[in-house]
Amino acid sequence: MASDRIFGLVSLFVALAYIASATQIQTSFLADPVGPKAFPMLVGAVAALSSLVLILRPDPDPSWPIGRTWVSLLIAVVVLIAYAYSLKPLGFLVPTAIAAGVLSYQLSPQPRAAALTGVGLSVGLFVLFRFALGLSLFAFPKGWF
């Protein structure tokens, strides 16, 4: 029970810091009525509420994952950090395909299915973000084409 409450308290502080940082987002005079602060503040509020639930109603008998699960979590964190740093120099498609493939392989260790999932997710998200949402993503590094 103590571990849930400690994690809930730490998460609450992080959520409050996230909300505080979201209030510092600068808005231009051409912003939409909701503004760029709304979504981060909503995410922070949901995280704060979830943290309060952990503090007020902890699991009476939490079961911690075994060592193999910790290794999988560490691999996922490393992959996501590497993904964030590789987006700008390598474009969107290649890093997203690799990251999605590795994470998919962790969920279900089938190499062919993981590779197809990575490529499909990469292309699908690129089409969605670029053409449906109008984001200015580069598919590949600028020097390639």
TrEMBL record:
Enumerate the transmembrane spans.
38-56, 68-86, 92-108, 115-140
Q: Give the source's domain of life in one word.
A: Bacteria
**A Pfam family recorded for this sequence:** TctB
Q: Which UniProt keywords apply?
A: Membrane, Transmembrane, Transmembrane helix
Which positions fall inside the DUF1468 domain?
A: 6-137
Name the InterPro entries for this protein. Answer: DUF1468 (IPR009936)
Q: What is this protein called?
A: Putative tricarboxylic transport membrane protein
Question: Which organism does this sequence originate in?
Answer: Pontivivens marinum
